[in-house]
Design brief:
Layout (H helix, E strand, L loop, with lengths): L1 E2 L3 E3 L4 E3 L3 E4 L3 E3 L2 E3 L7 E6 L4 E5 L3 E3 L1 E6 L6 E3 L2 E4 L2 E6 L2 E2 L6 E4 L4 E3 L7 E2 L2 E3 L5 E3 L2 E2 L2 E2 L2 E3 L9 E3 L20
Parallel strand pairs: 1-4, 2-5, 3-6, 4-7, 5-8, 7-10, 8-11, 9-12, 10-13, 11-14, 12-15, 13-16, 14-17, 15-18
Antiparallel strand pairs: 18-23, 19-22, 20-21
Length: about 180
């Protein structure tokens, strides 16, 4: 299925993506967007020339997702909640949830690929599991991932964000531990 115009799933809408959905414009979800547990569904955000807004009041549950938009960065303005259960392919385009109130969640076995200085999440990324994971984060045109290893932590929720700022004013560099 392809949508050239804006995709708008209203509160009464139920959309199950067990195939491939191409989204060429803005994406809004106020209803149910999900996939079947055995599906290989792919949501493909493919913009051209303009930034794409990903919005909504309801969590969009995506299995596999691909971000590809070579317009002026950031190419994806995330102002709604999305979760990825499969693979998130950051082919080209920065997902911005710093300037927009969206959230990006990776579920237990989710992963990502193709991250680079041209494609990452600028803002918080959340992880719903305490197994090994690399957060696809960055800021200011720089991909700067952070990672967690497998833990016995009491929590199954982790959150990370990269800030491109000089930390000296808050944490004086001359007072750091010599081992750091």
């Amino acid at each position: 299925v392809s949508t050239v115009a804006n995709f708008n799933n209203t509160t009464a809408g139920n959309f199950i993506n067990d195939g491939t959905l191409y989204v060429y414009s803005d994406f809004n979800n106020d209803g149910l967007i999900s996939f079947s547990p055995i599906s290989q569904g792919l949501t493909y955000f493919k913009g051209n020339q303009i930034a794409q807004t990903i919005s909504g009041n309801t969590l969009s549950e995506l299995n596999n997702v691909r971000f590809e938009n070579n317009s002026v960065q950031p190419a994806f303005l995330l102002s709604g909640p999305i979760s990825v259960a499969g693979v998130s392919d950051f082919f080209y385009g920065i997902v911005d949830n710093v300037n927009y109130p969206g959230s990006f969640v990776f579920e237990g076995q989710a992963s990502h690929k193709s991250t680079s200085n041209n494609s990452y999440v600028a803002g918080y990324v959340e992880r719903n599991q305490n197994n090994e994971f690399e957060f696809p984060i960055g800021d200011g045109g720089f991909f700067r991932p952070s990672a967690i290893g497998s833990t016995n932590a009491l929590t199954n929720f982790f959150r990370s964000r990269y800030f491109l700022k000089n930390s000296n004013a808050l944490h004086p560099h001359n007072q750091k531990d010599p081992l750091i």
